[in-house]
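Annotated sample (chain length 544).
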Amino acid sequence: MLPAVQCYKKGVRFLQKNKKQTFMQGAMILVAGTLIAKLISAAFKIPLQHYIGNTCMGIFNSAYQYYTIMFVIATAGVPVALSKLVSEANALGRGEEVKRIARLAGVTFFSFGALCSIALFFGADIIAKLSNNPMAIQAIRAISPAVFFVSIVAVVRGYFQGMSNMIPTALSQIIEASGKVVLGLIFAYFAGVKGFDDAIKAAFAILGVTIGEVLAAVVMLFYALSAKTQKNNLNDHCRSYKELFRVLLLTVIPVTLTSSVTSITTLVDTGMLVSRLQEVGYTLEQSNALYGVYTGQAFTMFNFPQTLITALSTAVLPAMAGAYAQQNHTMAAKNMGSAMRIAMLIALPACIGYIVLANPIIKLLFAEDTSGLVDENLGGSLLMVLALAIPCVALVGLTNAILQAIGQMKVPVITMIIGGICKIGLNYFLVGNPKIHIYGAPVGTLACYTLIATLNLIYLRQYIKLPKINKLFIRPFTACIGMGAAAIIVYRLFSDNLKNIAVLPAICVAAVVYIVLLVALNALEKDDILMLPAGKHLVKLLHL
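Output written by the structure step:
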């Protein structure tokens, strides 16, 4: 046996010796994995934007959005639905049924993922023409095989999430990001050296995403084959494959529809924004540049805190589903409250931090546009507007997961459709206004998620008691105000000498001030801290 394989299998066995993770421990593993993956991804997108420029970045992001919608159709509902069904069966002691669910999901979704990859590859020219962006054809074809490989990753993730093991999900995220960074930059450099045009250069850059998914799929299959699963055959009841297939589809379809609304809305945006910008007088190159700044700079930073909160949603769903399967509503409410409070502790400071430091953050991380196609402060201005939506997006992700976990599968579909219609309508009219142009996109995003979060909370309160608003919003927000003031003061003190680099000490000081104020304002729940790794030591340290 090869030494690398032996080493890998020993690592898997070591991980499997860990005790079953609590909800919050699993969430923290996902948060750590997601944070590492995002930092690695930043090491891809930021230098990539420096190297290929805003126009090519616009083509790259357009192709990525087309891939995203096909990925959502093929696999987005799989980890959620599979983790829900596996956690319910496992909570009831149906070990054999857990195995049947995993086998059935593998056969079904591997096949469907392959079909979606083929459809995306051969439909690339039609998709690009419909969106009035023919420069994206080659990039779409380069990323199309990734849909099949991500379906493999999705099934493995869903199974282990249902078993309350978040390590494979975190591991696969890091592998995907690492492959994308190393290979994507190498391919982009090769295309640049060869002197290819922007369309081919974007296709080479996006090929790194595809190979990153191939690597992740291979590692996840090795992990699944090497892992020793715990036997839980306390209940001999096991539904037939036919019945499980029906239940699986009834779970996957509404979850996929919920995820699809966001992706379809973004896909419509991809075509609409570039098209509407051309209609108000911008050239195709200028439109791609504006869209590139919005998606490559502002939206990249906007998504960073959301991915951390998505980790909480991923961890809370199987915990909630298992608790409901056992009729333990007290535990379900406790898990929901913890997830919401932790989410706001991440979302609110991200919101305030982006508002007060948006311009220096963008200028520090992204290349200055020398083409004259866009305003130098555009990325920061767009991020300021998007920042207002961060808390609402966090609540949407969590409440969608909770509603799905308690069996209210249709509600997120309906609210997401309502929000999607709102976003598309606002984007069409606002972006089509020459005085507003690309600024209409973040305004539409803000209105969309504010509406969805409000509708979800109104519906959810009928089933579960919501956390108290004081510790959920008011106290963390008060701490954020002090944090924001500290960030502004420190940045202004150092900006003359350090320029945009002054944002780094400003963020560090702001983080310390935020933690101190959270403790001073008693904004942290003792029970939430106890659920964390080394929670008892943290409680003693913080004197809670």
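Annotation: DSSP finds 19 helices and no strands in the chain.
Annotation: Confidence is low (pLDDT under 50) at residues 1-5, 10-19.
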